[in-house]
Amino acid sequence: MPLAKSDYLSDTWKDGLFTNKVVFCTGGAGTICSAQVRALVHLGANACIVGRNVEKTEKAAQDIATARPGAKVIGIGAVDVRQFESLKDAVDRCVKELGGIDFVIAGAAGNFLASINQLSVNAFKSVMDIDVLGSYNTLKATLPYLVESANKHKVDSKSLKPSPLGTGGRIIFVSATIHYRTMPFQTHVSVAKAGVDALSHSVAIEFGPLGVTSNIIAPGPIESTEGLDRLIPADAMETYIKTQPLGRFGSVRDIADATVYLFSDTGSYVSGQTLVVDGASWRMSAGGAASGALSYPDFLLTGDAVPNVKGQKSRL
Predict the structure, then answer these.
(1) Which is nearest to 256 in space by CA: 225, 212, 228, 217?
(2) What CA–CA distance (Å, rounded) separates 223 from 235?
(3) pTM
(4) Is pLDDT at 235 greater than 80 in this prediction?
(5) Which keywords does this chain's UniProt record carry (predicted)?
(6) pLDDT at 159 over 70
């Protein structure tokens, strides 16, 4: 059943904005990334989403395709972003079936709560591999097509007129704000997302001369997402909302709108930047996981493992 447009996209954008464009997205079955892709599909794009779970990825693709009659959305499961050949095969299929790649969203990520004492070397490596290596593999597999698309959709440097073919050659890395001020139980994610940010900045510098733009979207606490459920204990949720500058959590529509901004003509001169979409949340004192029963520093001083958190790994 199609979602109401208001659930994933504001009325700001005109229909057909991304007609004949193709977006490739890792982690595309996730709550945030699926909303990003759905918004682009609603506005005319076709899409390819990849993920590890075959059934979940294929169902998500079918669901996203309902955003626009005639939309083509491919869901490719059994793709491990840590394995370059796995990603390259998915990219090759995307190009063969949809004709190219104009936009990329590197959204695959891993997360769970754990203190450094609780965090094994393998668990730390797993997050680094998914987030950092996975983002790099996504970049490497799609770069030839991003460069090709950027070349087709150049902005006239003298008149500043956009290409009549629209935009292309743009990549967004989905990051976080955790590493700006640091958060207990999130060392692995903080280090990984700092690496993802650095990667995006480097892409902007090295491939800017070829017309490719590279930016980061850093979501804050987004309502009804798996990440929020994992990072904020249920007993602290109501209190945490009250600490937010805007007095609420964000929505997936907020992230989708930011994505459209960066991929459309409005983002033609935006590159090497981080677009934080968090209602100024990160500027408040570090909280999140260190709230409620996990209050800082008391819980850390007990030496106990983080208990009863949705999505927590049973063995780290």
Answers:
(1) 217
(2) 16
(3) 0.90
(4) no
(5) NADP, Oxidoreductase
(6) no
Q: How confident is the model at residue 314 (pLDDT cuts 50, 70, 90)?
A: very low
Instruction: Using CB atoms within 10 Å of the CB of residue 198, give its burial: 0 to 12 exposed, 13 to 18 middle, 19+ buried.
Output: exposed
| CA gap 26, 87 in Å, rounded | 9
Q: Is 135 assigned a catalytic role?
A: no
| Catalytically annotated residue among 86, 126, 135, 193 | 193
Q: Is 193 a catalytic residue?
A: yes
For the structural domain made of 5-289, what CATH number should be given?
A: 3.40.50.720
Rounded Cα distance between 103 and 28, Å, is 13
Cα distance between residue 229 and residue 222, in whole Å: 10
34, 86, 149, 175: which one is catalytic?
A: 175
Reply yes or no on whether the pLDDT at 312 is more than 50. Answer: no
Residue 49's nearest CA partner among 71, 69, 67, 30 is 30
